Amino acid sequence: MEQRYLRYSDGRYEADIDITVEEWKSMLQNPKIFDKSSLDMIFKWYNEIDHQATSNAIMSKLSPESKGTPYNGIVVGLTQRILKYLNRFDVIGTEGNKSRFIVPFEGWHEDYNPSKHFVWKLRDELVQALEELDMVNKLKFPSEEEELTCYPVEKRLEGKERVCYTTRYERDPKNRQDAIKIHGTVCQGCGFDFEKTYGEIGKGYIEVHHTKPLHKENGSIEVNPETDLICVCANCHRIIHRRKDKVLALKELQKLLLANKS
Q1: What is the pLDDT of residues 82-127, one digit of tens each?
Q2: For residues 48 and 120, what is the distance between their CA atoms, to the nearest angstrom?
Q3: By the 8 A CB rule, do 91 and 4 touch?
Q4: Are residues 123 and 13 in the same domain?
């Protein structure tokens, strides 16, 4: 069996994983490979922005009382089944041990800092396979009119698990990092400072907005972090995207804020 090697380059872990979309589709439909816990894990990452997250972030969101994570064990078992099914290669880690996460995921440390949490990102071919098999359902977003409709107050059940489908546009984490270095972590719209307001937990936090909407472009585009990205708080970011027919420019946002200051 061929041995392939995990490489560490510019803060990212890489390996030559040449699993095709058709191979992923075949394995996804095989419950002996993708068992319930494996599919559950994959769906959780699929529904994150850019199909990427740390295990810590997933656990904090879904099971904040838990101290550990089951996903390391799940990804090891899944990858062992994948490699056995393919029967053509194994992956050797940077320290000579077998590497498992790298088969269904790509990976790097947050901010490319080895002391921070590790980010897993679903491989593009796996994402495409999930979508071509229609294993995730389309989300229906309400219109503004539906959001503003008043309903009689009554008790309703919430919390049922559902798998959702939506189109996500890949973003390079290095562009985000560069934008923060250039523009800082104080909101360019309203001046909100997360660290000043929330203390240590808010340190370094800000949202990054693309001034060129990615969904309107055909394919990948070149992004200049200085001119094409801005750093804004969550409130300003939501207002920028509030209207479906028009994304507000930074100057328009600032003008609104000035006009409505009391």
Answers
A1: 999 999 999 998 888 888 999 999 999 888 888 888 999 999 999 9
A2: 11
A3: yes
A4: yes
Within 8 A by CB and 6+ apart from 258, the residues are none
- Does residue 51 sit within a domain? yes
d(CA 91, CA 207): 35
DSSP collapsed to 3 states, 198-260 = HHHHHCCCCEEEECCCHHHCCCCCCCCCCCCEEEECHHHHHHHCCECCECCCHHHHHHHHHHC
Determine the structural domain holding residue 6 and report its residue range: 2-137
Instruction: Answer yes or no: pTM beyond 0.85.
Output: no
Residue 158: inside a domain, yes or no? no
Q: How many domains does the chain have?
A: 2
Question: Among 96, 115, 137, which residue terminates a domain?
Answer: 137
Among left, alpha and beta (phi > 0; psi -120 to 50; other), residue 64 is alpha
